[in-house]
């Protein structure tokens, strides 16, 4: 078979390579888990992560540090959303990261119903500084659960000819895993979010009694266990990576519970991360969060 050296094939390849650079630069943990994905799925998950990361950088400091005022950050974020949706519709973008995402979205059935809630949550970071239970749930859906649903679409549809919806149980598992990941990060980053960014996502132990730290951790563990029970039903070339990511956040949840109220960011040592990845590689079942 003669290799395809057409212009669009080269452009597609370059866009995928650009997305891979983003994930390797910004997340060692997520990058490690992505390497456990089968080749059918791996580039697609990298493409999703890269777009999510770029949008996050607009609202989480990089744009501000470049001297961009809040109104300009909103304008750039809105433009990125519209460029993404247009690229999904037309199959091309001059922005390599957007192009990579759009190619995945078109192949795997990721539509505006997932893209728009994500950007809506990103806009929330420019507009809302303190969340109640309702706004927290809405924010987490757009910022994390839909990202899990995007990844699930790639697990189910990558390499196929016609995208199809995922099984409802898998959808629930993807949403709950995304929610757990986000709430773990909220707890880990609480001092930074409140002190540096002026944002309170959880209202932990606040005067209004919105949530307690233990209640948040209990919710995280329930979500992790529900998601863990569904992982064996994922396609075989995805299970190891999702198990590794699930177990990493289970380890973080346990460490957050042991650490109590601290300003130190809780981390999992690299040796432990590698051990969790090795455990997932040999096909071990996901860890129980409450164990």
Automatic annotation (TrEMBL):
Pfam families: SQS_PSY. Gene3D superfamilies: Farnesyl Diphosphate Synthase. This is Phytoene/squalene synthase family protein. InterPro entries: Isoprenoid_synthase_dom_sf, Squ/phyt_synthse. SUPFAM superfamilies: Terpenoid synthases (SSF48576). It comes from the Bacteria. The lineage of its organism: Bacteria, Bacillati, Actinomycetota, Actinomycetes, Micrococcales.
